[in-house]
């Protein structure tokens, strides 16, 4: 999709071309429009900037300290992100904790 965006195609054109290449109804026009809006808002790679991730991870840690039994979906609602983003943030938190534990053992 990004190549169509950079190639000057509209979201509708991209949707049509992707469906021709990959199969009918593989992607909706609304999905293409969402991604085009992300691309236009200077998130050209489709990702949020790193500092925003750090803020969300910090917010997630705070929420978990208050209530460690919140579901990923509830956390996602409170953070304003998808539940898959919460899963990724949780993995990052876990990796950070493992790294800190290894560093502590080495010292």
Largest sheet: none
Top-tier CATH class of the largest domain: Mainly Alpha
Tally of alpha and pi helices: 6
Estimated structural class: mainly alpha
Per DSSP E runs of 2 or more residues, the count of β-strands stands at 0
State the end-to-end CA separation: 48 Å
Q: Give the percentage of residues in beta strands.
A: under 5%
Q: Average pLDDT across residues?
A: 83
Domain Helix-turn-helix type: 60-96
Domain Mos1 transposase HTH: 1-42
GO molecular function, one term: histone H3K4 methyltransferase activity
Organism: Ooceraea biroi
Describe the protein in words.
The protein is built from six helices and no strands. Helix 4 crosses helix 6 (83-106) and helix 5 crosses helix 6 (83-106). The model is unreliable at 43-48 (pLDDT under 50). The protein is mainly alpha-helical.
Helix and strand topology:
Blueprint: H1 2-6, H2 11-22, H3 29-40, H4 50-66, H5 72-79, H6 83-106
Helix pairs in contact: 2-3, 4-6, 5-6
Search tags:
single chain; 107 residues; mainly alpha; Arc Repressor Mutant, subunit A; 2 domains; 6 helices; Mos1 transposase HTH domain-containing protein; double-stranded DNA binding
Please outline what is shown here.
The protein has six helices and no strands. With about 110 residues, it is mainly alpha-helical. It is elongated, with a radius of gyration of 19 Å.
């Amino acid at each position: 999709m990004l190549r169509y965006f950079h190639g000057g195609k509209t979201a509708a054109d991209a949707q049509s071309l992707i469906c021709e290449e990959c199969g009918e109804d593989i992607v909706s026009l609304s999905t293409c429009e969402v991604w085009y809006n992300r691309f236009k808002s200077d998130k050209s790679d489709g990702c949020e900037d790193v500092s925003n991730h750090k803020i969300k991870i910090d917010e997630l840690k705070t929420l978990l300290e208050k209530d460690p039994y919140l579901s990923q979906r509830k956390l996602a609602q409170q953070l304003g992100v998808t539940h898959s983003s919460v899963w990724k943030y949780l993995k990052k938190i876990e990796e950070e904790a493992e790294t800190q534990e290894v560093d502590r053992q080495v010292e």
